[in-house]
Design a protein that fits this description.
heterodimer, A: about 110 residues, mainly beta, seven-stranded mixed beta sheet, four-stranded antiparallel beta sheet, 11 strands, globular, B: about 110 residues, six-stranded mixed beta sheet, about 55% strand
């Protein structure tokens, strides 16, 4: 039972490049979330999904897109990477919105 | 605007003592409040959830209180151990999402 798996674990990009971060969960959770964590800023919600085929904006959605084509997967895309998007990205999932969230171990993304 | 405050300074205590961490919030009426633990290089791990109509919740050496009048939650670790050293995050539940505090680092020395 893997829980929440994030791919890749590390990545270095150049400004302007695009990439997709993958999150997979095997707990049959309805809700999935993408956060970024920066020093001194805490965890901030980027986008989330309340079920297959749905997405919604969080606190800091600009520069990111998401898709939830399958219930178990939640993809985060960076269309044109900027240095300000250097961060650690965490994916999480839960049965419902006010229930405990299960987190992956993060993707460390550096944009030069 | 909604605000969640946790002590930004690390809390240093000796092994065996009780650690008490504070989470204060304003402009928010959460139905649930949750506490998570985060170790360096890892994702947060859920510890406890307390509902607005509950005053206190316990799990082994952990205890959480929730005072909706004071808009404050206290998180206690009794008989602390060096293995309890980590950053502890409080999170307030909305309908679909959580809003996290910035966390407090706890350091337990032998």
């Amino acid at each position: 039972n893997a829980g929440v798996t994030q791919t890749p674990k590390f990545r270095v990009l150049k400004t302007g490049q695009s990439m997709t971060l993958l999150c997979a969960q095997d707990m049959n959770h309805e809700y999935m979330y993408w956060y970024r964590q920066d020093p001194g800023m805490g965890l901030r919600l980027i986008h989330y999904s309340v079920g297959e085929g749905t997405t919604a904006k969080g606190e800091v959605p600009d520069g990111y897109n998401v898709s939830r084509l399958k219930k178990q997967n939640f993809l985060l895309g960076l269309e044109s990477a900027a240095p300000s998007q250097t961060s650690v990205y965490f994916c999480a999932s839960s049965f419902y919105g006010n229930q405990p969230q299960h987190f992956g171990d993060g993707t460390r993304l550096s944009i030069l | 605007s909604q605000k969640i405050e946790q002590n930004s300074e690390a809390l240093n205590i000796q092994e065996g003592k009780t650690a008490t961490l504070t989470c204060n919030y304003t402009n928010y009426s959460p139905a649930y409040l949750q506490w998570y633990r985060q170790d360096p290089g890892r994702g947060p791990v859920f510890l406890l959830l307390i509902r607005e109509n509950e005053k206190e919740k316990r799990k082994e050496r952990l205890k959480v209180t929730f005072d909706t009048t004071l808009k404050q939650s206290l998180f206690h670790i009794t008989a602390s151990q060096p293995a309890d050293s980590a950053t502890y995050l409080c999170a307030l539940s909305g309908y679909s999402t959580l809003t996290f505090g910035k966390g407090t680092m706890l350091l337990v020395s032998p």
